[in-house]
Amino acid sequence: MSSAKRLIINCGASRVTAAVISSHGGTLQIDKLVTEDLQYDFSNEDAILPSVGEALKALAHTHKLSGKATLIVPGNQILTKTIRIPHIEEAKRAQIIAFEAQQNIPYPLHEVVWDSQVVGDDGVETEVLFIAAKSNVVDEFCGYVSAAGFTVDSISAATVLDYNTLQFAYPELDDDVLLINIGARSTNLLFRNPDGFFVRNIQLGGNSLTQNIADSLGKPFSQAEAVKHKFFAENNGYSDDDSGAKLLTSCSESFMRRMSQEITRSIVNYRRQKGGAAPKRILLNGRGSLLKGLAEQLSTTQKVEVEFFDPLQNVTLDGSIDTEIEVLRLQTSEIIGEACRGMVPSAAGVNLLPEGIQSAMAFSRKKPFLLLAAACLAIAPFPALVAYMNANAVYSEQVQAIESGLQPLQNHQSEIMRYKEEAVRAGAAIQRVEGLVNSKSNWIKFFAEMQNSLHAAEDVWLDKLNVVREQTADGKSSYEVVVEGELLVRESANGTENVDEDALSDQLKSLRSSFEDSEFIVSSHTPVVTWTKLHKGLNVLPFSINLVVDPTKPL
């Protein structure tokens, strides 16, 4: 059966616990579990992350842990809000969640890293658990993790992981249950019912009792923490009438009253928001739950059975783990909840690792394959290059052989081109001669027609005939015959005042029309008449007519 190992590190407010967990099908085994206490002033919140960084280094150097790890951040570093949005398809859900969340958190959305968990959907509304952490805190946290030699695989929120552990450890449980996990700085409250779950984190934990003792005794926080552990241990040496014991007992009772009030307020809030029933059972977990009298106090105030939660049910331990089982039960709930996410139905969990780091990690995972692919690409051209060089040598020899035989052919080609040009010129000359031969008979007919036209017109003769050939702009040929002649004017003997110019013009128009009747002429221009000679006493009238030749019947 296949198995997988994961390194899960729970970074609490007072200690860091790391576990190597193997999953075999549907079972879990803790192969290794180590803990490092945080050494810092618990009253100074800014000192937490540097202390976590030192603890992580100790895990790496002392306990020889390394590689990819899933990190769990405590509830006091997490902002948790339950919001309701319209029921829409999952692809569009993130945008609606972001809009609704911005209305419910005290700082801009771009300053946080967030994820969401659906906890209920009735088909009309979707109930979503919005979980966020400050971006600068997460970035600083990732820096300490990297400096310790670990690679952040994901960042989970402790707030919701108890839900997975509860399902894994108590698979037959179907009652309304309240699981209370009391940590150093805060307490996670998980309400579980057959339809889902509801979580709330209250800023009340073991350090709250320590601070109360420190204020009452006038001692530093670290000394008050030592006094607390000594007093609540068995055989502490205090007598019942000891004033110090009474003071510590009073602080303890005050803490339990506050815890009971916060739990009552949370139950009321849960029932109002979820419309569910009051819890029928309360399970306690976390080192703060060991406070003497707390279980009895909660059982009395909430009027339900209170017992301690055992997250190690259905979990096996490697024989090398020598930590007391009672201590392990108090330290491993969140770790088991993260490890069994893929083994329980409707598991809860988020990933608060920034997208930029996720992308960088994804690229890092692909980097070996990319380097291998690059190496293959770099090597791939060499066989082709060798083949190309061999082929190129063969081709070069062939080119030289072809070039040596090409020179005579090129000389022959030059001669062929010269003969071709001469043939073109000879062909053009032949065409011109053929044109002359073909037009010879046309001229004979044309002259005969002109002779008939002159005879019919009477008193008219031609002095000159010119052929005008021109090339137009559009590439076509213009072919005209210009005839120049004279018309005898008999009336001029009696003086130019007796000349009828209109009659002479009509006579020339008649001549022009007669010319146009020729099969070789398509049109003509208006005759150009020189009246000056007639007015000088001569009895002739010079004229000129341009006849446009039909290009299909050239002359």
Give a written overview of the molecule.
With 555 residues, this protein is an alpha/beta fold. It folds into three domains: 1-113 and 120-161 and 314-379, Nucleotidyltransferase, domain 5; 172-313, Nucleotidyltransferase, domain 5; 441-549, Alpha-Beta Plaits (2-Layer Sandwich), CATH 3.30.70. It contains 14 helices and 19 strands. It has helices at residues 48-62, 93-102, 135-147, 158-169, 206-217, 221-231, 243-274, 294-302, 325-331, 333-339, 355-379, 381-457, 501-516, 532-535; strands at 3-11, 15-24, 27-37, 67-73, 79-86, 112-121, 125-134, 150-157, 177-182, 187-193, 196-202, 281-285, 305-308, 315-317, 460-471, 477-488, 521-524, 528-529, 540-549. The strands form four sheets. A six-stranded mixed β-sheet has the order 8-4-1-2-3-14, with helices on both faces. It has a five-stranded mixed β-sheet with strand order 11-10-9-12-13, with helices on both faces. The longest helix has 77 residues, at 381-457. It is elongated and about 170 Å long. The relative contact order is 0.09. The mean pLDDT is 85.
Features:
555 residues; alpha/beta; Nucleotidyltransferase, domain 5; Alpha-Beta Plaits; 6-stranded mixed sheet; 5-stranded mixed sheet; 14 helices; 19 strands
- Contiguous helical run count: 14
Measure the end-to-end span.
108 Å
Main sheet attributes: strand count, strand direction, barrel closure: 6 strands, mixed
**Average pLDDT for all residues:** 85
Radius of gyration: 56 Å
Number of DSSP strands?
A: 19
For the record, the CATH architecture of the largest domain stands as: 2-Layer Sandwich
CATH C-level label of the largest domain: Alpha Beta
CATH topology of the largest domain: Nucleotidyltransferase, domain 5
Order of strands, widest sheet:
8-4-1-2-3-14
Classify the oligomer. single chain
* Domain module tally: 3
Helix content: 40-55%
> How much beta, percentage-wise?
25-35%
Structural class of the helices, strands and pairings? alpha/beta
Structural shape: elongated
Low-pLDDT runs of 5+ residues are none
